[in-house]
Structures are given as C-alpha cells and as structure tokens.
Design brief:
Elements lengths: L1 H7 L12 H31 L10 H15 L1
Length: 77
Amino acid sequence: QMIVGLLAGKPIESKEPPRSAAANVFFWGRVLLSAAILGFALAVTLSALFAGNTTMWEGVPEAVSVILFFLLMSVVG
C-alpha cells in the first residue's frame, strides 16, 4: 500500500496516529522476515521444479512446469 501510494504521488490518509519508533521497527522487521521467508520458499520451489523433484507428469519438461507454476500462482493466488 505504501509503495502504490508513493508511485501514485498521493499521500495515504489514515485516521490512526503515526507509529512510534518501536512500532516502526517491529513493522519493518515483520516486512523483512516475510520477504525472506517468501524468497526462501520461492527458491526451494524453483529448485525442486528445475531438478524434477515434483509429481509432475513424466513427459512434461521442467521449463513447462515452471511456467505452469507461475501461471497457476497468478490465477489461484
């Protein structure tokens, strides 16, 4: 939400008071931890797809399974 607001050039209006320094550190710590976990999960999934360690059908190449993965993730979310 913050990035979209910055890209749009409009400030984000909120009725909540600004976060304290401790709350700000906790917020950005959670953001970084979530990004690290997401990156690790993506790395493990892609390495398994490229190594063929999946239950994908026998005749499907690894590149097609990666494309299917991203296609399904974008549709299903």
